[in-house]
Amino acid sequence: MARGKTTSNGKCSLCGGIFDKAAMSRHLKTCKQKTLAPGAKKASKTALHLLVEGRYQPEYWMHLEVPADATLETLDRFLRDTWLECCGHMSEFEIGGTRYSVEPMDLDDESMDVKLSEVLSPGMKFDHAYDFGSTTHLRLKVVSEDQSDLAGRKVGLLARNEPPVIPCGNCGKPATKVCANCVYSAEGWLCRECATKHKCGGEMLLPVVNSPRTGICGYTG
């Protein structure tokens, strides 16, 4: 998207600390150990630490902890609920050249009903796509495989970027609205006052939300 440079700080969900994107990965290595449940001697299950970011909007990112025996479908549902879902579009993962879909449409596609431990390992990078018309692309990396005591969670949010401050293309104030027609130009990002004067009209305006899908299709967060 054509817009100015944005910030990329994030908040650790475990301790509440604020760190930049690069420092967060290092911080979580030690913070996860410090925040183990009091008296916990043995972790409950193996989990994968994943970094997720917008492939073309890397200022949007999350660190997740997902049980290794969870399915790709569980991870897909979390990504939809947190960042993507607007109109029930199709989605898929691509891992090592193989596509995994909720409803495979091609003979070469596999089902998402497969455990993460069967297709992922530490250091691997893979992709996710939502909506094959106005596609939102995500890039994921398996940071590590750990033992976790975060029982009762299918997917745990370890950290997430703070909402980027995107300037209004007209006056430079923080944008609160984005035009679905003009989302790929700076003029499409508007502060509250400038939004009332935008040439495309109020019906084309969507809220600026903390997601790489902001301004796309009918996404409102």
Model description:
By secondary structure, the protein is of the alpha+beta class. The protein folds into 2 domains: 9-161, Roll (Structural Genomics Hypothetical 15.5 Kd Protein In mrcA-pckA Intergenic Region, Chain A); 165-221, no CATH class. The chain is 16% helix and 31% strand. It is built from 4 helices and 13 strands. It has helices spanning 21-34, 72-84, 116-119, 192-195, and strands spanning 9-12, 18-20, 45-54, 61-67, 91-95, 98-101, 110-111, 125-130, 136-148, 156-161, 177-179, 189-190, 205-207. The strands form 2 sheets. It has a 10-stranded mixed sheet, sandwiched between helices. It has a 3-stranded antiparallel sheet with strand order 12-11-13. It is globular, with a radius of gyration of 19 Å.
Give the secondary structure arrangement, pairings included:
Layout: E1 9-12, E2 18-20, H1 21-34, E3 45-54, E4 61-67, H2 72-84, E5 91-95, E6 98-101, E7 110-111, H3 116-119, E8 125-130, E9 136-148, E10 156-161, E11 177-179, E12 189-190, H4 192-195, E13 205-207
Parallel strand pairs: 6-7
Antiparallel strand pairs: 1-2, 1-10, 3-4, 3-9, 4-10, 5-6, 5-8, 8-9, 11-12, 11-13
